[in-house]
Amino acid sequence: MKKNNQQEKGYVYIIGAGPGDPDLLTLKAERALHASDVILYDDLVTSALVDRFEGLKIYTGKRKDSHHFEQDAINEEIVRHALRGKTVARLKGGDPFVFGRGGEEIDVLRQHRIDYEIIPGITAAHGASSYSEIPLTMRKVSSSVAFCTGHPINKIQAPDADTLVYYMVASSVHAVLEAVLKKGRSESTKVAIVQNATRYNQQVFTGTIGEFLRRDRVAYSPALLIIGENINHFIEENWFSRKKKVLTVGGEPTHFSNRDYVRVNFPCRREEAAERSVLEECFNTIGDWPVVFFPNRFAVKYFFSYLMEFGRDVRHLSGARICTLGRPAATELQKYGILSDFELEPESPSAIAGMLKDGGISAQKVLLPGSNLVDSYLVNALEEEGNTVTPLSVYLHGKHEQEESIDLDFIDEIWFSSPSCVKNFSALYRSIPERITVTTADGETAAEYARLFGS
C-alpha cells in the first residue's frame, strides 16, 4: 500500500548545542544527534562536538574563508532533506529560541507540514555567567535580568532590569553602553565582557561603563556583555580559570582529570594505507580528469600540497576545467598561478544546479577535493546535472578549524599520542612557547618531538 505524504516525510530536531563547551550538550540532544541522518551545524558549534556523531555533516555557518548560505537557504536545505525522508538535526549554538532564529525555522517546517521537535540548549548568558562566576541574579543585588541583542544599532533596547545581558556585541559595545546611559544608568555602573564563553580561551574583562567607553576596541566575537552591580562578585581566580588547559594531540588520555584540566582536542590520525593508496592513485592519473571542483580554499591548499608531494605540478592540470565555489577558493587558487575557469557564487543551494547547467558542467567526470566529510550542497547539484562525482579527501574535517583557531597563548600543556601526531602538529606550528609543558605517550613519540622541535 502506498504511504501518504506525511509518512514519507522525515523528522527534524531543532537542537541547542550550548555556548561552546562540548560537554554542555544535553543528554536528549545527544540521543537525537545519534539518531539523525543529516546534521546541519553553525559556526559556533565545535568540530569536537559534531565529530561524535555519524550523520552527514553540513556546515551552515558563515566562516569568512568558506562559501556560505543565508538563513533562507539553510531553511531550504533542512526542508530538502526532510522531504526525502531523512531525520535531520539542525544544531545551533546556545539555545534555538534565544537569538537563535529557531522560530523562523519552525515556521518553514510548519508550512511544509514536516514534523519537528525542539531541544533546548544552555544559552550563552547562562554559560558565561557560570564559567565566569558572575551571578545573573543575587539576593539583595539583582532580582531581575533582561536578555537583549546588540543589533541593529538603531534599535538597541535598555530595559528596566537590575542585570542586562547583551548578545552579539563584538562590534557594538559602545553603542550599547551609550543606549544604557541614556536610560539613566551612571558611568560608574559595572560592566563585564565575556569572550569565548565556556571555551578553553574564555576571557573576562571588567570595568565601568565610563571606562569601556574610553577604550577603542573592547570585544571580539563571540562576545557577551553583562551590565549590573552583580559584577562586583566576579573574581579573577574563578573555578574555570584555575583549571589547566591541556591540548591533546590525538588519542584519549585518561590521566588528565576533569577536576583539574580542561581538555582541548586537536584532531589527528595516522594515514591508513588504503587512504594513502587512493590519494596516490588519483594524483598519478590527475591529468585524466576533465573537471576539478574546489568547494573551499582549504581544499585548494591541501590538494596542491599533495600534488607536489606526489611529483606533479600545475602542468598536469592543463586539460582540466578548474571550478571553484566562492571567492575565497578562487583567491587561494591564484596563489598557485591558476585562474578559475568557472567560479560559482550562488545565493542558495537551489541556484547551484542552474549555474552548473549554464556553465556547461554536465555529464562529466568531476573530481571534488575536500574534507573527509563530503559537501552535499555541491554533490547533489552536480549529480542533478548528470555528472559523475568522485570526492577526494585531502584534509581531515576540523583540521582547518584547528589551524585557524587554536591559540597556544591559552594552553598550559600539550600531550602527543604518537609520532605521526607530532609530525602533523609541526606542519601547523613551527614552535611551542617554552612556558608550555610537553608530555608524550611513549619514547618513540618523545624522540619525534625532540627531532622536530629541538628539545
Automatic annotation (TrEMBL):
Signal peptide: none annotated. One of its GO terms (biological process) is siroheme biosynthetic process. Pathway: Porphyrin-containing compound metabolism; siroheme biosynthesis; precorrin-2 from uroporphyrinogen III: step 1/1. Residues 264-454 form the Tetrapyrrole biosynthesis uroporphyrinogen III synthase domain. Its EC number is 2.1.1.107. This is uroporphyrinogen-III C-methyltransferase. It is an enzyme of class 2 (transferase). The lineage of its organism: Bacteria, Pseudomonadati, Chlorobiota, Chlorobiia, Chlorobiales. Belongs to the precorrin methyltransferase family. Keywords: Methyltransferase, Porphyrin biosynthesis, S-adenosyl-L-methionine, Transferase. Coiled coil: none annotated. One of its GO terms (molecular function) is uroporphyrin-III C-methyltransferase activity. Pfam families: HEM4, TP_methylase. Residues 12-212 form the Tetrapyrrole methylase domain.
